[in-house]
Amino acid sequence: MLPAVTVDTYNEVLRDEEGFVGDRASGRAFRAILDDWRERLRSHGDDPFGDTPTSEISKSKLDTYLAGADPVAAGLVHTAVEEFGNELATVVRRFLRLRDWAGTERIVVGGGLSASHIGQLAMGRAAVLLAGDGISIDLRTIDNHPDKAGLIGAVQLAPTWMLEGHDAIVAADIGGTNLRVGIVELKIKKGDMSKVGVWKYLHWRHRDDKPSRDAAVDRMADMAKELAQAAADHKLKVAPFFGIGCPGLIDEHGTIRQGSQNLPGNWESEEFNLAKELAQRLPRINGHEPLFVIHNDAVVQGLSEVPNMQDVTRWGVFTIGTGLGNARFTNRPQDEKKHPEK
Fold first, then answer.
1. Mapped to the 3 state alphabet, what secondary structure does 173-217 carry?
2. 41 and 88 in a common domain
3. Are 171 and 82 contained in the same domain?
4. Predicted pLDDT of residue 111
């Protein structure tokens, strides 16, 4: 049980005649749309991006094209953004029809695309379309940078008593393309978690290296050990807790049941348990065996927004990454937050 919110649902998998609905609003979907429009341009003239594959054009470069002096390049990006915004609006409509998403007042959008201007413009396009259809929903970008939100949210997974007397925790955000491990500094005063932030983190783009599952876990453990030592050298007292966000459906034992197809190797095997694998590779933290808590990565990224969601009751998160992550939350009443065990 989480102290601040109830997770109503997460990792919803919706299908239509074209496949998974969420795939229409993923990072891959945006690049597929852009690639399609480039193909159309080439059949009638020059592609302003030349021979560069769409997959190699960074989000920051697309932002530059959008604001640049070349009207065709800007128009190309804007057209792809507009179409992607339409798809995002469609996905929002489908989710709001679900029983567990009924009454949602706000959706925060995270993931790598949300940190770019093109992503924010697409979200604005979706918001306008939804408002035009009479759908009352507040769409906004996640407050923390997506690279850090998936680490910051891990603090909400920890038992409050375990954080007392400590300065930081270890956290990891595992995605289909990237792995980030960080030290999250608590800075909690009287239960206020609004100042929680990432002290330091390491980033590995594992998709480029195509490691085996065991090699990926080894690298993750090495990153955690390096960071824990750096924190100790800096006189930060790290709690014996490791919070992890991971794609897919996670059971109460920390086993990944489904949805990890973008990770290296088979993470859904009955013989594989990430917490146990890490426990074998990591030393004690300040003399104690660490507690590992694993939850869905969209849930954890959404949890970073808890301090900013006190003006609503029911809210959700979309994370636009390799795929589309999703979760819906209901804030707990204040008396339950003080006594979450009841």
1. EECCCCEEEEEEECCCECCECCCCEEEEEEEECHHHHCCCHHHHH
2. yes
3. no
4. 84
pTM above 0.70, yes or no: yes
Report how far residue 11's alpha carbon sits from residue 318's, in angstroms, rounded to the nearest whole number: 10
pLDDT 10s digits, 314-332: 999 999 887 788 999 999 9
* pLDDT in the model for residue 337: 55
47 CB burial (10 A radius; 0-12, 13-18, 19+): middle
Answer yes or no: are the C-beta atoms of 274 and 217 closer than 8 Å. yes
Q: Per the structure block, which two tokens stand in for 292? A: 């590992």
Specify if 175 maps to a domain: yes
Res 302 pLDDT > 80:
yes
What is the pLDDT confidence band of residue 20, given thresholds at 50, 70 and 90? Answer: low
Write out the two tokens for 23: 């795939």
pLDDT digit string, tens, across residues 206-253? 999 999 999 999 999 999 999 999 999 999 999 999 999 999 899 888
In this structure, is residue 304 part of a structural domain? no
One domain for residues 168 and 98 = no
Residue ranges making up the domain that contains 37? 5-143+309-330
Q: Are residues 216 and 290 in the same domain?
A: yes
Same-domain pairing of 230 and 95: no
Q: How many domains does the chain have?
A: 2
- Cα–Cα distance measured from residue 181 to residue 203, given in angstroms and rounded to the nearest whole number: 7
Q: Cβ-count burial of 299 within 10 angstroms (0-12 exposed, 13-18 middle, 19+ buried)?
A: buried
Residue 335, domain member (yes or no):
no
- Please, what's the b/e burial string for 210-238 (b: 16 or more CB within 10 A of its CB; e: otherwise)? ebebeebbebbbebbeebbeebeeeebeb
Question: Nearest Cα to 296, choosing from 29, 84, 110?
Answer: 110
Assess contact for 254 and 268: CB atoms under 8 A: no
CA 234 to chain centre: 28
Where do we find the tokens 């955690």? 224
Query: Residues 57-114: pLDDT tens digits?
Result: 999 999 999 999 999 999 999 999 999 999 999 999 999 999 999 999 999 999 888 8
Rg (CA), the chain: 21
